[in-house]
Amino acid sequence: MENYTDLNPGKRILLGPGPSDVHPRVLKAMSTPLVGHLDPDFLEIMNETREMLKEVFQTRNELTIALSGTGSAGMEASLINLLEPDDKAVVCIAGLFAQRMADIVKRCGAEPIIVEAEWGNIIEPEKVRKVLQENKKIKLLAIVHAETSTGVRQPLEEISQLVKEVGALLVVDAVTSLAGIPVEPDQWQVDAIYSGSQKCLSCPPGLAPISFSENAMQSIAKRTTPIQSWYLDIGMLQSYWGKERFYHHTAPISMIYALREALRLVLEEGLEKRFQRHQLHSRALVAGLEAMGLEMVAPPQYRLPELNAVYIPEGIDDLTVRRALLHDYGIEIGGGLGKFKGKAWRIGLMGYSCSRSNVMLFLSALENILQQEGYSIAEHGILAAQEIYQQK
Amino acid sequence: MENYTDLNPGKRILLGPGPSDVHPRVLKAMSTPLVGHLDPDFLEIMNETREMLKEVFQTRNELTIALSGTGSAGMEASLINLLEPDDKAVVCIAGLFAQRMADIVKRCGAEPIIVEAEWGNIIEPEKVRKVLQENKKIKLLAIVHAETSTGVRQPLEEISQLVKEVGALLVVDAVTSLAGIPVEPDQWQVDAIYSGSQKCLSCPPGLAPISFSENAMQSIAKRTTPIQSWYLDIGMLQSYWGKERFYHHTAPISMIYALREALRLVLEEGLEKRFQRHQLHSRALVAGLEAMGLEMVAPPQYRLPELNAVYIPEGIDDLTVRRALLHDYGIEIGGGLGKFKGKAWRIGLMGYSCSRSNVMLFLSALENILQQEGYSIAEHGILAAQEIYQQK
Questions:
Q1: ipTM higher than 0.90?
Q2: How many Cα atoms are found within 13 Å in the side-chain-facing hemisphere of A250?
Q3: Whole-model pTM above 0.90?
């Protein structure tokens, strides 16, 4: 046997697109010795987790659970439970994660109808209206609320109205929005919504909070073909999390411990305060970046506070800067994905990572590195950020 | 907000069908602060995990990874990547978990051909031979190596030969066997094999170690239809875990920390010693149970040491006994599944749970409770168990 050393990863400040930093209380919860997954104590923990998830999702949906997979499993579960072969699904694409939705729709044997926008822009509701008028019998429309590849918030409320006018189902990716900006599935008549544990919930990755409306469940009940996945069959999962406790799979106990604690932290802070915190620190960060002369990707009114995408200044090498941030400061930020590879950075301020200390440290580090690389800053970013905090 | 208390589940000794008790070193690893999932330090941790998984699986298969889901996700991934609509798959069924395989085969649009045996028995190789002769163009045969619902080890080596004679692929469920009894996919020419983290590996549930042969990958390359799952598409997962590091999903970082530590513990002990330890403690347990007059479900030569299924004595109520074990001793054992509900108990001695102290405590607790319930034991179980340990 080769000699494998003790686990000893570097110390990091996670300011990328997720995972975000995890609160010590969550880490501690995860190290709690296990009980069985059908133990009365664990069933109570599942119940509490479900109740807290409902509060964080601001929903009354009975079927609100944590899937035993990452956010991508949530995406797949939402689509494959609702779609049957030959169904039509409108997919709104303005970034990488929405492209995946179209891929999954095809794997269901269903037909994706694409509404596109340039990366970094919103999906124009007018375009959606046109597509919904031109096509008959649309089963659902799928949209990414907060596109992690561009930092853009999509105009969900307007698009929801259009979807409901034609009687279609609405599927929403809230991976990067939940617990960072308002997410209100009941208000917005969302039929299936999912998130990931490692973004604004600041729990380690591995679970996908998910919620299905009554309407969605009725649609599933009318299926004439089987759901293609056993693992992600939402009816079976409901029986496992519900009163029946019908054994399905073995819940990832330690991850549920972690999620329960992360949800407690969210509710202790309060959703409204948490949203304000994300707004404040993002405003300071953006003020700092713009003062230095950098340009944000998303238009101000649709900018996500928890994921700040910014163009890399001309002449500056993406990897050199990110490596210096990681090696000299232990700071992780995200590179660009897809079309934005080498062209944009993605600076996450999610959950426990979203703090004044992190904003100030990051701006100071970035300024330093950019100057070393020969970039001449317009003004000092840290001073502009401080001004925001002083106004508060 | 309702007041949710600090996490405080009861203290347990996990002697059920999994999860098993988790070593303190694994719990500690899980509470390590996170790095990003594309961080150079994490990529190294993934590499090490993959290398250790290969050692534990005793395989050279390049595609050996940990799926971001539980053992059931491993089952689904193995079948859906290899099967296309209208393919024929022989499924050997002698327990609950094999039934699931047939369910998944159907959800692929493929045709399951069932070879059955009574629960608690082995699948007779002769029956398999007949089915393989009677049916042309069999794509694969799927079998559960260690059936968690019955405690029976299936005669994999003999069945493998028959499968290979007709040129079909072999899919093996090693959820309960890996790291508890010998599992040798290369030797046995297995094409897809999967396990769960929470059994004899003594890691929390949430990951599915999985390994595909070169032969399996060639078969996947020849597919004419897409793999129905994006999340479990093994080609994409290979690119994520492999040199390309092509972003797929966000790996469950803390769970990988845990698995790495659990694998280290397995390799430090050594596979051979670990198998012997499982044999020894199971022999002591069985000697104790039989001394008290109880009857084991599985025939001795096919009995799993890590999962000891025993018939509940007549006149004794299943739930009363299991509740007393849980409440008075903090011991969890498993009830019967499916046909064995109320008729058998499943006593797990897996990984870190498999120890002399646990065997002795359990036998003493069970003897006590059975006597309280009016059962008159033949002989003292603890004395019979002690004799086994003294022979050693």
A1: yes
A2: 31
A3: yes
